[in-house]
Amino acid sequence: MAQIAFLGLGNMGGPMAKNLIAAGHTLAVFDLVPEACAALAAEGASVATSALDAVSEADVIISMLPAGKHVASTFLGESGLLAQVPTDTLILDASTIDATTAREVGEAAAKLGIDFMDTPVSGGVAAATAGTLAFMCGGSEPAFERARVILAGMGSAEKIFHAGPAGAGQVAKAANNMLLAIHMIGTCEALAMGEAHGLDPAVLSNIMKASSGNNWSLQVYNPWPDVMEGVPSSNQYRPGFMVDLMVKDLGLACEVAESCDLDNQMGKQAMATFSSHQAQGNGDRDFSSIVEWVKAQH
Ligand code: NAD
Predict the structure, then answer these.
(1) CATH 1.10.1040.10 domain range(s) in the chain
(2) If you ran DSSP here, which 8-state letter would residue 32 be given?
(3) Residues contacting ligand 1 via CB (< 6 Å)
(4) Catalytic: 173?
(5) pTM listed for this prediction
């Protein structure tokens, strides 16, 4: 079992850290919000006074932070953690950030002989709580072998993927969420068109699930209210994967596309659609509420 420093105990990091304790690891935790640390102390973690304090005895560092600038300031520079930790430390950044920063931190770590991987997740708060997250990892093969056993404490073993070198995890995450946004909007348009012609959205959903339009949104996350139990669309689109986070991820995906000169027209359209929905006061609602935006286009 490992001595783990966990940095960033928000909606995702909190339950992830809790699952690592349940898996038998010893945790030192740090967050800028004292209440978030206190919640983990109640689970058996020791609370550190700074990121540097948290990593003082760590074999493994895991970060779950809001954006690239937080990851860069935590790890890079003279006072960053890369300059302070032993070279046999394994660092896993599970935050969703821009691929450029992930590559930059990965390359800086590699120069020092430190194993660093970008390990963004798919699954949201429910999967973080249940310990069933998917991980998409960027870094070296030996680092991935070390990471796999730790990540299994927070996710499903069969959903831990080695995407490629540093930054590849973030590229995979951006690609996945761009596709998710596009097929969610497409699913909403198909259902809205059918309903406007008098079809029952539940019946149309079953037809498309058994046909070539079948996709994840139809299978497990139907956006139409009351077609499926236990999903955000049957609970006023709360809780869930927030529109604000989808807009963030689409922005990252558009950056990834631009950096390889790909004109990602569908991704850009999805970005415009979700941004418009966000601007109408829906930022804190589940992203499947985009069905309301689609229906309003009559
Ligand atoms: P959050 O805002 O709830 O949590 C972030 C935490 O990081 C906060 O508690 C904040 O105080 C802390 N923090 C900020 N800067 C820090 C620093 N320098 N040192 C220590 N702690 C610091 O965000 P979240 O929903 O937990 O998301 C975390 C990451 O996971 C983001 O990159 C997000 O895009 C990604 N993500 C979120 C979801 C989701 O459904 N919420 C799903 C997949 C991926």
Answers:
(1) 171-295
(2) S
(3) 7-13, 30-33, 36, 51, 64-66, 70, 74, 95-96, 121, 124-125, 241, 245, 248
(4) yes
(5) 0.97
CB atoms within 10 A of CB 82: 20
Nearest CA to ligand 1 atom 1: 10
pLDDT tens readout for residues 241-277: 999 999 999 999 999 999 999 999 999 999 999 999 9
Assigned CATH class of 3-164: alpha beta
CATH 3.40.50.2000 fits 171-295, yes or no: no
CA dist 103 and 167 (Å) reads 5
- At 30 the three-state DSSP class reads strand
CA distance 223 to 24: 38
One-letter amino acid at 81 equals L
Helix and strand numbers (H, E) in the chain are 13, 9
Among the listed residues 18, 159, 173, 248, the single catalytic one is 173
Residue 131 pLDDT > 90, yes or no? yes
Residue 263: strand pairing partners: none
The type of residue at 64 is M
Instruction: Extract the tokens encoding 200.
Output: 């029952």
